[in-house]
Amino acid sequence: MSTLAVRPLAVSDEPNWRTRMRANPLLVAGGIIVILIVLIAIFAPLLAPHPADAGSATHPTDILRAPSAAHWLGTDQVGRDVLSRVIYGSRISPLIALVVVASACAVGGTLGLIAGYFGGIIDDVIMRLTDVFLAVPALLLALAFAALLPPSIGSTMLAISISWWPWYARLMRGTVASVRRRRYVENCEALGVRWWRILFGHVLPNSLTPMLVQASLDFGGVILTASALSFLGLGAQDPTPDWGLMISEGQAYFQTQWWLVTFPGLAVLLTALAFNLVGDGLRDLLDPNRMPSL
Amino acid sequence: MKLQINELEVSFGSRRVAHVPQLTIETGQIIGIVGESGSGKSMTAASILGFADKLGARVRGSVRLDDLELVGATSQVLRTVCGSRMAMIFQSPATAFNPVLRVGETFFRAMSLHGEKSRSARADRARAAMAQVMLPDSALRRYPHQLSGGQLQRMAIALALALRVELLVADEPTSALDVTVQAELLDLIKALRDREGLAVLLISHDMGVIAETCDTVVVMQAGEVVETGPANQVIGAPDAPYTRELIASVPELIPVRAAAEHTDNGQG
Amino acid sequence: MLRYIVRRTVSAVVVVLGVVALTFLIARVVPGNPAASWIGPRATPAEIAVVSRQLGLNRPVPVQIWNYFRGIAGGNWGISIHTHRSVLSDIVSRLPASLELVISALIIAVVVGVALGLIAARWQGKTADHVIKALTVIAASMPVFWLALLMQWIFFQKLHWLPVAGEYSLSLTYTHPLHSITGIPVIDALLTGNWPVFGSAITHLILPAFVVSTYAMGVIARMVRASVLDVTSETHAQMLRTLGFSERSIINRFALRLAWSPVAQVVALVFAYSLVNTFLVEAVYNWPGLGSYATDSISSLDTPAIVGLTLFIAVLYVLLNLAVDIFQAVLDPRIRLT
After folding, report:
1. Is C29 within 8 Å of chain A by CB?
2. Structurally, how many domains does chain A consist of?
């Protein structure tokens, strides 16, 4: 019977954020693009060669010019510089996404919190309500609401938020219901801690993560939905440089003036892509035990 | 049947997770590997059955089943050995069986894979195996979620018996079971060793389980073999401090130790 | 299992009732002047007053709701401002075209998506996997109407390979008139042996169906990949390996059966999304389905049509989800317990 010398345990190999970043190149790429888009949005007036074109300026002598040195992405049907309009468009889509996601989280999260914590009939009622809203596909519901409201960016935001909140309510309710059953919450209740203390001090902070992860994933989807709504004429109106609107306006000229549709569409694609990558990466990062989504 | 392990090394990249210098298992022996999680015992089992590389590990050294070298063997070769000469049972019996199939279906498919084409022969072998583990035939027709953990572990053993394996590798077979069921399962393993000559490699973090069942004990810590030898020696008079810790965590064993020491002292 | 089916069906009926109530809200409560929005922008105040009385807008709300429900149940979904016909009959007549598109798109999405997902799972970590992953993310980020325009430009404009508008070449209605059975040209042509129309219908279908399928394809591929990888790393896949089964047989015989269940779920999910994508694509390709009906209704502020359409799609969606749930319960016996 022999005893061998025991090798000391290896230094902890719990991955730190740096190694995780390296393991997630897509997250990093997406994150960089998102930051770029935000920077472009902020510095739009400085970056756009013809800032006025993003507004109501028109140049009837310069209409429908192909991409050239003077106008990198060409000009549109009233002579506006497409590049400038695309740059200014970066202010609109992410803003809509932010407002929509924030309000949907606020409303949905609150309802989900109430439903999950109090359970019983409140839970049933709220869940039936979400079932009904979820029965209609999001874009369709948004379309129905947007069609009945006067077309504007505000109606788009309202319409999409209305169709988006039920999902967060569901998520929140599920998380809250399971957190509520955890031992330390039961202990708090047994000790007589007030319900609102428990709710906001213990249950809420521990239930936020899934909803926030979903929210980050939804940014891309909201951007696509918003551009679809403006493509249909329900969102921003001329002369706002909204990408969906630009595609719709350029549709008639598409066969010969391909640049009117291509570049705004590319902008939507890249923005949605960047946000989707970040969302996916965040999900992997925050829950590494899951199968990676990509 | 002789399984011989020589200088087995399992690594993930540059990190070595298991190192077994020497281990032999022969027909009718029950060998136990004991250690806490992360000690490398499960990776050792995975290397014996040839799926360590599926988990991303690199295996070096030698694992010989009679004349057959298993380390570096092609998947064809491994497939002829796994399920016919050796089999494994897992910690979580509920997830070991395919949840959408009746348990008997898994039996039949496995037997069919290893050459038993006759339906009646398969049915006979399955029934005989069930009798050996003292379960009724009707259990074969059930879905996994309809059976208890203890029953499923017995079925896993029955599957190995139906396949007529010579070596059974059991990775934490009792960890998910409660104490009484645990004892029954260990008695079953010992009975099978006595009756059929089944060789068993029993892996556990619970020294009590090992002490009760095994002839030879291997103690692993952080991937290294810290102590090895016959059970009553390792448990009665442990050398390594880690072994002492493991024994100390199982109160029932302390009288065993005391008795062994007493005997040792008596012999000088 | 029967109990599960009954429970799910009852639940579905409740949801449908809820959706009808929701459309009531949209039709009567949201617009500033419900009567005006119901009969259109060109109505005189007198007409609006008549409609207002007809709709019972002066009655208490519960009575209004009751009448509304009765109307819906009886098939009276309002008159389209745009076509001056019953909204329900409009929808039903334009449904086959959209169904043709959506179903073809889903077939493409499932066939290609499952294949891609299996390839990605089998070659996990290798080039094929990375390429497929990239494609699925791009597919999920693509504005479908833009893709529709782009594809049209490439395949019609530049390459002249595929036609651009309509379900099939209109000139064929004179030379080879199509006898309508299901209302779906591809199927009708097949059933009546009308080969010229069949060929024309297929070539007209390919491009829009492909465009609509891209998002669903991406989602399905991802789901299949994740599901297969999940299953093959699970303990029973490990056990199968230790029993001597090959990787291929583990994937094909065991993992796939388990993986179908989430795929079915995903199809239901993407059906709604694909239907909406269909609407967007129909506008670009002049496809005579519900989508172009929707876009026409939007531009003519046709409230009854919009509301009716929303209700219709919602009911369709609920029924589809019900079907998928039952299908899943058949596939996976564990679900019957819940």
Report:
1. no
2. 1
Give pLDDT, residue C302.
Answer: 79
Chain B residue nearest residue A2, CA to CA: B227
Domain presence at residue A116: yes
Which candidate from A1, A9, A13 shows the least CB-CB separation from B239? A1
State ipTM.
Answer: 0.80
Q: With an 8 Å Cβ cutoff, is C316 touching chain A?
A: no
Neighbours of chain B (3+ CB pairs under 8 A): A, C
Mean pLDDT of A160-182: 85
- At B69, give phi and psi (nearest 5°): -85, 125
The residue type of C200 is S
Smallest CA–CA distance, residue A170 to chain B, in Å, is 28
B161 conformational bin, left if phi > 0, alpha if psi -120 to 50, beta if neither = alpha
More confident residue, B245 or B33: B33
Residue A148 to chain C, least CA–CA distance (Å):
6
In a domain, A74, yes or no: no
pLDDT (average), residues B206-233: 87
Instruction: Kindly give the pairing relationship between strand B216-221 and strand B30-34.
Output: parallel
Question: What value does the mean pLDDT take over residues C182-208?
Answer: 77
Q: What is the pLDDT of residue B200?
A: 93
List domains and CATH numbers for chain C: 96-301 (1.10.3720.10)
Cβ burial, residue C166 (10 Å; 0-12/13-18/19+): middle
Given a cut of 90, whether residue A268 has pLDDT beyond it is: yes
How many Cβ atoms sit within 10 Å of the Cβ of residue C238?
A: 22
Q: Do residues C34 and C26 lie in contact, with contact meaning Cβ atoms separated by under 8 Å?
A: no
A14 contacts in B (CB within 8 Å)? none
Mean pLDDT, residues B166-174 taken together: 90
Concatenated DSSP letters of C211-232: HHHHHHHHHHHHHHHHHHHHHH
Instruction: C12-17: list long-range contacts, CB under 8 Å, 24+ apart.
Output: C12/C318, C12/C319, C12/C321, C12/C322, C14/A128, C14/A131, C15/A128, C15/A131, C15/A132, C15/A135, C15/C318, C16/A135, C16/C314, C16/C315, C16/C318, C17/C69
B163 touches chain C (CB under 8 A): yes
Residues C209-260: pLDDT tens digits? 999 999 999 988 988 888 877 776 677 777 888 888 887 777 777 766 666 7
Say which of B78, B96, B163 has its CB closest to residue C235: B96
Is there a contact between A6 and B225 if contact means CB atoms under 8 Å apart?
no
- Using a CB-CB cut-off of 8 Å, the residues of chain B touching C248 are none
* Average pLDDT value for chain A: 79
Instruction: Collapse the DSSP code of B68 into the 3-class scheme (helix H, G, I; strand E, B; otherwise coil) and give the result.
Output: strand
Q: How far apart are CA A21 and CA A111, in angstroms?
A: 35
- Across the interface, whether the CB atoms of C243 and B82 are under 8 A apart is answered yes
Please give the model's pTM, rounded to 2 decimal places.
0.72
Task: Tell me the nearest-neighbour CA distance from B77 into chain A, angstroms.
Answer: 31
Confidence of residue B257 (pLDDT cuts 50, 70, 90): low
Rounded Cα distance, C53 and C49, in Å: 6
Predicted local confidence at residue B15, as pLDDT? 84
Which tens digits make up the pLDDT trace of A104-149? 999 998 898 888 888 788 888 888 888 888 877 777 888 787 777 7
DSSP annotation string for A196-229: HHIIIIIIHHHHHHHHHHHHHHHHHHHHHHHHHH
On whether residue A293 sits in a domain, the answer given is no
User: Which CATH number goes with the domain that contains A252?
Assistant: 1.10.3720.10
| CA B232/CA B247 separation, integer angstroms | 12
Give the mean pLDDT of C176-184: 70
- The verdict on residue A55 lying in a domain is no
Of A246, A251, A250, A220, residue with least CA distance to A235: A246
Position A269 scores a pLDDT of: 94
Answer whether residue C70 shows pLDDT above 50: yes
- The residue assigned the tokens 């095994």 is B214
Instruction: Mutate one of C137, C271, C297, C321 to test the A interface: name it (highest A CB count within 10 A).
Output: C137
